[in-house]
Specification:
The structure holds two protein chains of two kinds. By secondary structure, chain A is of the alpha+beta class. Chain A has one domain: Roll (Ubiquitin-like (UB roll)). Chain A has a five-stranded mixed beta sheet with strand order 2-1-5-3-4. The longest helix of chain A is centred in the middle third of the chain and has 11 residues. The model of chain A has no long low-confidence stretch (mean pLDDT 97). By secondary structure, chain B is of the alpha+beta class. Chain B has a single domain, classed as Aldehyde Oxidoreductase, domain 3 (Alpha-Beta Complex), CATH 3.90.1170.40. Chain B is built from three helices and nine strands, in the order E-H-E-E-E-H-E-E-E-H-E-E. In chain B, a hairpin with a 3-residue loop joins strand 3 and strand 4. Chain B is elongated and about 55 Å long. The C terminus of chain B is likely disordered. The chains are: A alpha+beta, B alpha+beta. Chains A and B meet through loops of A and strand 4, helix 2, helix 3 and strand 8 of B.
Amino acid sequence: MTRVTVLFFGPAKDWTGCDSTSVDLAAEADLGSLQRALGRRYPALRPALPTVRFAVNETFADADRTLHSADVIALIPPVSGG
Amino acid sequence: MSDIWIDLLADVIPASQVRDFVMGIPDLGGIVSFEGATRVEADGQHGRLVRLDYEAYESMARRQLERMAAEAMGRWRLGRIAVVHRLGPVPVTETSVMIAVAAPHRVESFEACRWLIDGLKSNVPIWKMDVFEDGFARWVEPASLRNTDLY
């Protein structure tokens, strides 16, 4: 089993109602399976999922990225700095 | 002293310090700086925009800005880069972001400064909320949803 922490920023906190959560995934799970798990847990997040990016340990990552226990994942809604 | 200054501040950006950081180096003759400030807007329902509230994934935002500054140093012949972003409330007319670049000549400085602000706006985890005079607040949805250039 792989247990990861997921952080929510900006509008993502409104979609989930929290600023972080912990998710248990199968061993060797990838970022895509985490996305699906988050969509099941937070229905309000589903419409936004096609527009968000994910970071693994503070670096942007693609859906096929394999996750490991203790990884810190951040859900990054479209950014609006500057 | 490092040639790169990256900062996220909860207070007014010290513009003269940012400028001083890139000035005064004998072989750097082209100095460009950019400031982005909160601009007033009117909303039919909620009145005038009074401020923007910024938040960041701070540790990653710093890393992203450091990566971008290091990449800019490699793309152009630059001597100094400063990128300072303010977080929290930024009232209308005040600066939310300041970038300053020094290079031997102006062309590199202009290009690098533009590249840095464009990259910041698409690939650095910072978000802002519009706050209006009636207290209504909403997250800003950026016009261009994503940049394929991943760091």
